[in-house]
Design goal:
CATH topology of the largest domain: Jelly Rolls
Radius of gyration: 24 Å
Order of helices and strands: EEEEEEEEEEEEEEEEEEEEEEEEEEEE
Largest sheet: 11 strands, mixed
Number of domains: 2
CATH architecture of the largest domain: Sandwich
Number of helices: 0
Shape: elongated
Distance between the termini: 62 Å
Structural class: mainly beta
Strand content: over 45%
CATH class of the largest domain: Mainly Beta
Number of strands: 28
Length: 340
């Protein structure tokens, strides 16, 4: 969320509809906000204070139930102006829910108004590569009220960051950002970070695999931050509407999915030359399967399916397979067959 000059540089961008996360991921953590009252202390802590937060922001962050509470299955973060001073809330999962890679999915409705700056983002938990921006920042969603409906996904690193005006990101239009809930998410792997709006991919930041942490510090654990800032270097570029006195961001859920483990092939691990063997992978609806056998073995039946029979050859070797699902390709663990 730290910004100075907002310059968007799209290193690699695509637009692609994807299937729901469950097709290639499994749920490992979530807060569905089913309690009432204060947010769960098992999941959330508070950043507190009125230091400007590196951006000349106006608000003081508190842990007051006036600024953050759970009601009717939603987390409500509220910025309030009293006596010409703003208070708000900044909730964090640091040291309670920290993650390395996965699909992070947040469904939220955003506030409107010039001067508002709501954000759903992630920072490193241990800052192992140094202070900001050296250890990185992942902005899943940012919105500034003077530019209504223009939602941003951005990353910051030592080489690409707001202080240099070189941060990398992309924006997408969300006309009903303040009247409807939308799902803001990223899929973060060792190779790239993809950003999505309602399962539509609109931004990709790729690991250059140079080993330089200035360009890719995203191999350490990060945690969530949910907040509303008021004013600041970016949010306050056109001032703060003097008529504003109370506004909220509503969060329906925060969910984290991990990529499925490599599928396991079952079958005959010991064979005689020329024997007919069977091999099987877990069935996935809508998926296609590609099998690879040693040169002297051949598929007899079931090519393209999750279950094959094969005539084995004269040598030991490995059975390999890939599954192409609606959301991507998964490679199975190699299966060893030994000639007896």
């Amino acid at each position: 969320m730290k910004k100075y000059i907002f310059l968007l540089i799209a290193i690699s961008t695509y637009t692609l509809k994807i299937a729901p996360a469950q097709d290639c991921y499994h749920l490992i953590w979530a807060d569905e906000f089913n309690n009432e009252g204060k947010p769960s202390s098992e999941n959330w802590s508070y950043d507190l204070g009125a230091s400007g937060w590196g951006n000349n922001e106006l608000q003081e962050y508190t842990n007051s139930s006036l600024n953050s509470y759970v009601e009717d299955g939603k987390l409500i973060i509220t910025a309030i102006k009293q006596n010409n001073k703003w208070t708000s809330a900044r909730l964090v999962t640091k040291n309670k829910a920290d993650f390395l890679y996965g699909r992070m999915e947040i469904r939220a409705k955003l506030p409107a108004g010039t001067g508002t700056w709501p954000a759903i983002w992630m920072l490193p938990t241990d800052w192992e590569y140094g202070n900001w921006p050296a250890s990185g920042e992942i902005d899943i969603m940012e919105h500034v009220g003077f530019d209504p409906g223009n939602v941003h996904a951005t990353v910051h690193t030592g080489a690409y960051n707001g202080s240099l005006g070189t941060q990398v990101g992309k924006s997408i239009q969300v006309p009903d950002f303040d009247t409807a809930f939308h799902t803001y998410s990223i899929e973060w792997t060792k190779d790239k970070i993809d950003a999505f709006l309602d399962n539509e991919k609109y931004f990709t930041f790729e690991n250059d695999h140079s080993g330089n942490t200035d360009t890719w510090p995203f191999d350490k654990k990060f945690h969530f931050i949910l907040n509303i800032a008021m004013g600041g270097n970016w949010g306050g570029q056109q001032g703060v509407d003097p008529e504003l006195s109370k506004l909220s961001m509503e969060v329906d859920y925060v969910r984290v999915y991990a990529q499925d483990d490599k599928p396991v092939i079952s079958g005959n691990s010991v064979a005689k030359p020329g024997e007919t063997l069977t091999f099987e992978l877990p069935f996935t609806s809508g998926a296609s399967y590609t099998w690879n056998l040693p040169e002297d073995a051949r598929i007899q039946n079931g090519a393209g399916s999750h279950h094959i029979t094969a005539i084995w050859g004269k040598t030991s070797g490995k059975v390999n397979a890939t599954i192409v699902k609606p959301c991507g390709q998964v490679t199975a663990q190699p299966f060893e067959v030994t000639i007896k």
